Amino acid sequence: MRLTGKETGAANARVPRAPADPGATRRAERLAAAMVLAAGSPAAAIDSLVLLRVEVLDAAPSLAAAIADAIEAMRAGGDATSYLTRARRIADGTMRARGPLGAWSGAW
Question: Residue 101 falls within a domain, yes or no?
C-alpha cells in the first residue's frame, strides 16, 4: 500500500547562506554613497564612480559597464538616474546581467 510509511516529515532548521560574492555588499554601499554625493557635488560623484568602476572591472564586469554608462551621462550633463538605478540593481543582486540570447533552435 502506498504512503503508509512511519516518517513524520519533520524538517531541519535552515541557516542562511553566505553571499556568493563577499565584496558585493561593500560595492553596493560605495555605489549608494556616490549616488548621494551626486545630488550635491556631481564632480565628486563622478570621481567616486570612476574609482569604483576601476575596482569592479574584474569582479563584476556588468556593474562596471553600468557605472561607465552613468559616468558618460553625468559628464555629458545629462540625467544619469536610469543608469545609476540599473547599476544599483546589479550591485544589490536584484538584477542579473545576462549575455545575448542564443540562436533559436528546435524543429519548427
Answer: no
> Does 7 map to a domain?
no
Count structural domains, the chain. 1
Let me know if 1 is exposed, middle or buried by CB neighbors in 10 A (0-12, 13-18, 19+). exposed
45: CB partners within 8 A, 6+ apart:
34, 35, 37, 38, 74
In terms of residue numbers, what domain contains 43? 24-92
Q: Exposed (0-12), middle (13-18) or buried (19+): which is 71, by Cβ within 10 Å? A: buried
Q: Which residue has the higher pLDDT, 96 or 11?
A: 11
Residue 50: pLDDT band by 50, 70, 90 thresholds?
very high
Q: Give the tens place of pLDDT for each residue, 14-48.
A: 887 766 677 888 899 999 999 999 888 999 999 99
Question: Which residue from 21, 17, 5 is spatially nearest to 90, judged by alpha carbons?
Answer: 21
Angle between helix 42-56 and helix 61-75 axes, rounded to 10 deg = 160
Packing angle of the helix pair 24-40, 42-56 (nearest 10 deg): 160
